[in-house]
């Protein structure tokens, strides 16, 4: 067991949730600038972490991404479990720190829920569909850009920018999850409807990832063995 891979996933997921959800808390998600700033905070977190820990763990920092890599036979079952546990730990620690900042140090939370996701006016069905589609686009891109070593130098940038444009669409609709760990961490501390509805943001990204793998196999020149 290579503990460095799991530690890298803890740190990477921590950075994603702390910076992404933290920016949502501080800037809000209105269309007058906060929306785009938060989208870039999530995307740039991926870019930064990809070039730091990509060579260690692959920088999944997302259970849905790890599932896609497991299904595509790029990740063992043991590592899949280890990665998911590590990602959840990183997300929970980041959310706990954000909670302390709000409750102890009085930092304003413009989202009212530590940047947690919500079904909003879409309802359960609409939010579920949105998250499946957004995760499909995100994971499909990751599968393609990481399939060949010649793309390694730009993979982090491509993945980060893809997360940005996914958030641009998703923030007004669900707050954008596409990442079960990112959703679970804040929901645990926000409680209320964020925690009640968190199952949508746990299940939908996994389904989106499965669809992305099937689509990738359908269009790729050769499926990995």
Explained architecture:
The mean pLDDT is 93. 73% of the residues lie in helices and 0% in strands. It has 225 residues and is mainly alpha-helical. It is built from 9 helices and no strands.
Which key phrases capture this entry?
225 residues
Short description:
The chain is mainly alpha-helical and 225 residues long.
List the secondary-structure elements in sequence, H or E: HHHHHHHHH
Number of β-strand runs:
0
Work out the strand percent. Answer: under 5%
> Ranges with pLDDT <50 over ≥5 residues?
none
Return the average pLDDT rounded to an integer. Answer: 93
**Helix percent band:** over 70%
Total helical segments? 9
Radius of gyration equals 16 Å
Shape: globular
- The chain-level structural class is mainly alpha
Main β sheet profile: none
First-last Cα distance:
23 Å
Chain-wise SSE layout:
Layout: H1 3-27, H2 34-57, H3 63-71, H4 77-103, H5 123-145, H6 152-170, H7 180-190, H8 192-196, H9 198-219
